[in-house]
Amino acid sequence: MDLPGLRAIDVHVHVEQDDHGHLSLDGELMEASEAYFRGSENRTPTVADLAARYRSSGMAAVIFTVDATTAMGHPALSSEEIAAEAAEHADVLIPFGSVDPHQGAEAVEHARHLVIDHGVRGFKFHPSVQAFDPSDSRYYPLWQAIEELAVPALFHTGQNGIGAGLPGGRGIKLRYSNPILLDDVAADFPHLTVILAHPSVPWQAEAISMATHKANVFIDLSGWRPKYFPPELIQAANGLLRTKVMFGTDYPLITPERWLTDFELLPIDADKHERILKLTAAGVLGLS
Questions:
Q1: Are the beta carbons of 179 and 206 closer than 8 angstroms?
Q2: Which terminal residue of the chain has fewer beta carbons within 10 Å of its beta carbon, N or C?
Q3: How crowded is residue 171: how many other Cβ atoms within 10 Å of its Cβ?
Q4: Which own/partner pairs from 269-272 qualify as long-range (CB within 8 Å, at least 24 positions apart)?
Q5: What is the pLDDT of residues 96-115, one digit of tens each?
Q6: CB atoms near residue 20 (< 10 Å)
Q7: For the whole prediction, is pTM greater than 0.85?
Q8: How far apart are CA 264 and CA 185, in angstroms?
Q9: CB-count burial class (<10 Å; 0-12, 13-18, 19+) for 209
Q10: Do the Cβ atoms of 57 and 45 come closer than 8 Å?
């Protein structure tokens, strides 16, 4: 990967469809999320779609799915297949894996398998969609394994677009995505890099406090257009957390071009832009 030649590294991009036509979510959830984000591009990109899209934009992307097989009753996309296809586009794609935390020891072995045998560079978790409390000690063997594998773990935090607008949010519980639940994880596994995905509304203060307090906690800025960022997050990104926040979009829900256009208008000093857009991510991902 030609790091100097990249405009940016998008650390939060979803693979929504595999080469067999299987989708990451069932139809009701897919339609509801599309309506919530008002997306205008391909809602169900494959790995090949993402490679072409990001290559043409001069950017790299961290790509993944979410394995919520137990909680959602919907078979997950294969992280092994995602990793294999990403390897064919290593100039622009960085694969993360996902495992189902409810599968216990099997999830731990799956995580090891994905890193050691398939070269994934980190893991994505969505506590609300996967229906688990990451601070519960029953999941600690999984965090220990990921810490030993020396790759980051990225967790959805805050408001949830999946299930939004549906009766009962389709049973998806927001409380599992309170970032403070990850404070125990970051404290008890100090060598595990924890990435808090998204502005953590309505718990933004907790996320900022955690990233300020713990060297192993970072924030990705995906899932919201920057013009809607909480003021305290903008202030932190321009100051105390200038080396702890990273560019991310949540594509295909938000396009990188729309995100970057908004970002240029934020009161963040220009000399901090490169670090936010790619340098911090390069360090977290072991690319620099």
A1: yes
A2: C
A3: 12
A4: 269/238, 272/237, 272/238, 272/242
A5: 999 999 999 999 999 999 99
A6: 8
A7: yes
A8: 34
A9: middle
A10: no
